[in-house]
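Q: Could you write out the predicted structure for this multi-component system? I'm mainly interested in how the pieces pack against one another.
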Amino acid sequence: MKQKAIVLYSGGRDSSLVAHLLDHFGYEVKLVTSNSGIVQGAPKDAQKAAKIIGFPHEVVKIPKQIIERAAEIAQEDGFPLHAVNYAHKQVLEVVTQKFSKKYTTIADGTRRDDRTPRLTYPEMQSFEARHNVAYFAPLLGFGHKTINHLSKRIFTYKEIWAGTKPTAEYETEIRAVLRKKKKGLDKKIFPKKHFHSVITGWAASGNL
Amino acid sequence: MKQKAIVLYSGGRDSSLVAHLLDHFGYEVKLVTSNSGIVQGAPKDAQKAAKIIGFPHEVVKIPKQIIERAAEIAQEDGFPLHAVNYAHKQVLEVVTQKFSKKYTTIADGTRRDDRTPRLTYPEMQSFEARHNVAYFAPLLGFGHKTINHLSKRIFTYKEIWAGTKPTAEYETEIRAVLRKKKKGLDKKIFPKKHFHSVITGWAASGNL
């Protein structure tokens, strides 16, 4: 029996690797990108990437309040870790409620060397029990060396300076709310130099 | 370039799944089972399972002191968690020192829902830096629902009551030391009813 899995999808290396793995594991994969409407174009790169890697893709509207509350948390903290984590957990709930009747597995691109976003182990257990699904973070045991090796083997991708162009990461919409509060506030809160990756094609080796 | 990986191997579902995954990821896989000589026959089922799943396999002799110290820890604690964890970390060190010149990746079957054995995140970082390898625990993000689904899809296996028959788990040799200290001591320390799985073949669906 083919299990059906939702993959929370940004169009980047990590969530694309997750989709590819689950497909290899025999799951029927559907990609989902969340968007609150605060930055309507944010999912565009994710939509393109989904087409490239070849899975059905849906943009799911989430309440603006999730992003607004996340922006408040970021402002209170002065750094984005808890804000992004909060947004991710809320989005997991919204998406899972929408799909848990048809889909048995909810997967995301959380990695071992990420500090954020991350469910704790008790949160994973509670999430699975409440929704009667399997939560699956296949990259949780993959360190950055392994992720680099595998994504280069499988995909080509470009790197986008965070904050310079909308991407499907939570960061894009949280930044927009912060900028509305005060010009330049997002730049004070999010780290200056980091990239978001966007899949642009298959590597020459082409596949796993 | 094909990366070479060592998989710490017990012959059970988890480490067999790890070997199978790494093979799919394009790694050249070698299975390694540790044995201190206290229970010399312990790796036998692992050797058979390795043949079934089709990877080169080596039994690596580890110092008896590792198992003896683990047994002391178990006796002090009255439960096996830290003892097994201690043994696993020591074995990781011994095996990695032996193979880190030729192998870039050291993998094990640690799962999300295991309480033991488990490296902490700082321990993983330290391990990778000291040995210049990637530590890869691909099942760390796999919950028990996902592991059940995938192992049944891929393998057939039998379940062996822990303590009734030697298996390649650390438990077998630690129990032997405890029994030598005092008759029945191992039964007081290890939980009564649990199984170790041993791979017996491929499932009908045969593969990922």
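A: Regarding packing and overall arrangement: Residues 81-99 of chain A form the longest helix (19 residues).
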